[in-house]
Structure formats: structure tokens, C-alpha cells
Design brief:
4-stranded antiparallel sheet; Phosphorylase Kinase, domain 1; kinase; 31% helix; alpha+beta; 2 domains; 318 residues; nucleotide-binding; 7 helices
Length: 318
């Protein structure tokens, strides 16, 4: 299979390689799986295990030619464009009747970690890794469009990758709606401009807003806005002001308040304009914190949300 790479904005290597099966999958088992595609239920994630190795794979499928199949094809194609450094890459297989994506079952999503309990140094490390990964996605002219905590994956080396690019698009392309005419997203993470029902207008800054929601909730233990219905979520993102994180979890320094509130600005023009800009700011805060800064810095401690008492960790913050 021919492959090639292109440099996107001089910043990241974006692959034009087509998705391909994982080399780790046993070939005989893979062939047997290919023959059983007709038994896979459309739209339902299935877990299958190799008998000899015990490895388990997550399988998602859809009938060829359907809207769901087009979404799976988009997911595989755009994830491959971004590359393994920032995207969870599926194996892409199928036959004339099915489109099937296969992923390793083992994954560690941010949504699986306790919220409101993370130490601030760990929070900064994850936030910076997420900003680096998102800058790689955007450097390949890809807007994810539906980021949430379940799509932020952490590996054992502290790197972040994003999953599920089925609703993503290339910069400048219109967002593909679902069958109801609305993008299929978790509205807790929807940017204000994404809340427009007539025609959502998205760019990379919408992803930055969603990342702000994810990081805010991870740090303080609750999302920046609360709502009980889609209509309430749409209203909240457009009209309700976000409280500084330090008003919810004691001891969060002003520097982190400022970063998260800027990510969550209602006006895209008031947010960080690029993920690289966000990453640079987080790195600056972390360096100043652990070096002790140079005058004018305050020693602050961070407690678990809602738990008064002695600090668990002590950091010097700008």
C-alpha cells in the first residue's frame, strides 16, 4: 500500500496513509472475523477476544452505504490523517456489506479517572499534553468538533490522544449533521457557536472550548455549567457566566483560573486562538511554579474539592 506524509503548517507530520489493520492481530483470527461481519450488529460496539492470545478488541460496524458507515469511514480516514501521535488509530476492515472499525479494547480515557481530586502538577501535565495533541490535530487542518472526556485518552508515557473522529471535519468544511439535523454531541461540551441550531459554525477554537470544559471538570469535580436538558445546555453555553474554578475547589491559583476562563470565553475571539498558544501558557505556568518564580509569587496549596484541611501538595504559583 502506497503511503505518504505531508507537512501541515510546518508544525506536524500529517499522514495521507489509508487506515490498515493492526499488525498485532492474529492473521488467522482476523480472517475468521472478516467472514463473520454479517453477524455484527450495526451501531452497537462489540467486544471480541482472540482465543489464543486473550487479547480483546472493540468492534464497531455499519452496513455499507448508510449514514453510519460514512461516519465510520470518516473516523478512520481523519484519524489516519492526524496520525498515531495524536489520534487513536483504528484498524479499517470490511467487505461489500459492512464497514468495520477495530480498536484494542484496553484504553484509559480521562473520563475514567476521579474528578476533583487531581494534584495540580498532574493536572498541568495532562493539560499540556492535551494541548500538544490538539495542536497536532489542528495542524493537520482537522477540527474534531465533538470532544468530551471519554475521547481524551492517556497512555503510560503521559501522552494524550483523541478518539472518535467520526464527526470531525477538515477546516473549511461544513459539519456533517446526524439524521435529526443536529451534530451528535454531548451538549455539556458544546461551544456557544456550536449551540446554534440553524447552522453550527465551528473552527479550531470550538475544540479549545470543549477542552476547557473537560479540564475544568477534571480539576474541580463538576462541569463549568449545569443543565438538565439540551435546551438548557444551549442556553447555558450562550448566556450563563462560568465561575472561576477557585470558587469551587479551594486553593486553585489565579493563573489556572485565568487559563480555564479564557478557554471558556463565550466569544471565540476572546479564547486562545491556537492550541499551541494554550500549550505555551501552561508550560510557562508550570515552569514558574516549580522553579519558585522570581519575586511576586505566592505559595498556594490545593485541596481536594469540598474537603477542608491540610494541603496534600505545596506548589509556588505565579
Amino acid at each position: 500500500m502506497a503511503t505518504s506524509q505531508q507537512t501541515c503548517h510546518g508544525e506536524a507530520r500529517c499522514s495521507s496513509e489509508e487506515p490498515r489493520p493492526y499488525q498485532a492481530i492474529n492473521r488467522q483470527w482476523w480472517s475468521e472475523l472478516a467472514l463473520s461481519f454479517t453477524g455484527l450488529a450495526d451501531g452497537i460496539e462489540t467486544h471480541l477476544a482472540e482465543e489464543k492470545s486473550g487479547r480483546t478488541w472493540r468492534i464497531r460496524s455499519a452496513a455499507a452505504g448508510t449514514f453510519a458507515a460514512a461516519r465510520l469511514e470518516r473516523e478512520a480516514t481523519l484519524a489516519a490523517r492526524v496520525g498515531a501521535a495524536a489520534a487513536e488509530l483504528p484498524a479499517y476492515v470490511g467487505n461489500s456489506d459492512k464497514v468495520v472499525l477495530v480498536y484494542p479494547a484496553a484504553r484509559r480515557a480521562l473520563a475514567s479517572l476521579p474528578i476533583g481530586e487531581v494534584a495540580v502538577d498532574r493536572f498541568l501535565a495532562i493539560a499540556e499534553a492535551a494541548a500538544i495533541a490538539l495542536s497536532r490535530v489542528h495542524a493537520c487542518d482537522v477540527v474534531h468538533g465533538t470532544l468530551d472526556a471519554g475521547k481524551v485518552l492517556l497512555d503510560e508515557n503521559g501522552l494524550v490522544r483523541f478518539a472518535e473522529f467520526g464527526r470531525a471535519r477538515l477546516t473549511g468544511q461544513e459539519l456533517a449533521p446526524d439524521m435529526s439535523g443536529l451534530p451528535q454531541i454531548d451538549f455539556k461540551y458544546a461551544a456557544p457557536e456550536q449551540a446554534r441550531r440553524d447552522h453550527p459554525v465551528l473552527d479550531t477554537r470550538s475544540d479549545l472550548y470543549a477542552l476547557g470544559v473537560i479540564l475544568y471538570e477534571f480539576l474541580v469535580g463538576r462541569p463549568p455549567l449545569l443543565a438538565a436538558s439540551i435546551a438548557d445546555w444551549l442556553h447555558a453555553h450562550v448566556a450563563i457566566d462560568v465561575l472561576p474554578p477557585s470558587h469551587i475547589r479551594g486553593g486553585i491559583p489565579p493563573a489556572i483560573d485565568a487559563v480555564l476562563l479564557k478557554l471558556l470565553a463565550k466569544d471565540p475571539g476572546q479564547r486562545y486562538q491556537t492550541a499551541s498558544e494554550l500549550q505555551a501558557e501552561i508550560a510557562r505556568i508550570a515552569v514558574l511554579a516549580w522553579s519558585g518564580g522570581r519575586g511576586g509569587h505566592t505559595s498556594l496549596s490545593v485541596r481536594k474539592a469540598g474537603r477542608p484541611g491540610p494541603s496534600r501538595r505545596r506548589v509556588v504559583w505565579p
